[in-house]
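Dear support,

I submitted the protein below through the web form. The confirmation email said the job was done, but the results page showed an empty box. After a refresh the structure appeared. I'm attaching both so you can tell me whether what I see now is the final result or a partial one.
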Amino acid sequence: MTVMLEFVVRVVGVLVAFLVAPLLVGQAEHKVMAHMQSRLGPMYAGGFHGWAQLVADGVKFVQKESVVPAAADKRVFEWAPIVAILPYLAALAAIPLAPGIVGADLDAGLFFVLAVMSIGVLGSLMAGWGSGNKYSLLGGLRVAAQLMSYELPFVLSAASVAVAAGSLSLTEIGHAWNPWWLLWQLPGMVVFFIAGLAELQRPPFDMPVADSEVIFGPYTEYTGLRFAMFLLAEYAGIVVLAGLTTVLFLGGWSGPGPESIGWIWTLLKVGVVSVVVIWVRVSFPRMRADQLQKLAWQGLVPVALFQLALTGIGVILF
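What the results page shows now:
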């Protein structure tokens, strides 16, 4: 009975976090962008500091008609948003807030999270193919090409941390972390963060979407709640990326004070990394397709390989 109760608590906790955290990131994006770009609207919706902006967006999406194009593959078209968002729910379940505060403490947690994150691209491919629109299909193929380019440095930089910790368990990696890693694993952290942004198709790596060029890429034909689910998947991806960056490179729950408040430090670090993701969106212009591929293969992959070699030498010597 106790085991069943613990299981239910963990499941409910993960679901609540999955429903709340992406919305908080979405609200933060409205506010941060409003301050950085002097946008007035998001600061006035509802009165005090624009608190109702997210509510207004939700009402807007609910009111819009959910249209399925006549030429679309209806089943593929309708399932695409669900396929895009579910992998992040599974990934969030394996990221620990603190020792014992995790949905599923897996021995190969890092491998599991990286694997399920790569599944999300299927949602974009399904959206592009199922829409029956050549521009949507082009956007879906761009997503696949971008993921293939940035998956390698993303995994290599994460593998460097696993080698340093001697474990694939995210909890064990959090225990093994020490402040020296902030310097030792710094190149890997930069590569991991940049590749993570590219995998989420966040600006400046939003070539697959490129709303001013290919009419929002694979999501062109989506309206209403289905379109909102793709946006929610993007914000959930930011939470997962920030959580992984925190646990792998920033010490997770490590911080001043007793270990019992470690989960607070994890949440604070996740919040800071999420704000950096938003700041990057506002600060840098979109890259061209050739620049995007060149950065991956001539920039990030060599640095990730160097970081992996450096970590191996450090483990053997020290």
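Response: this is the final, complete result; the empty box was a page-load delay. The mean pLDDT is 88.
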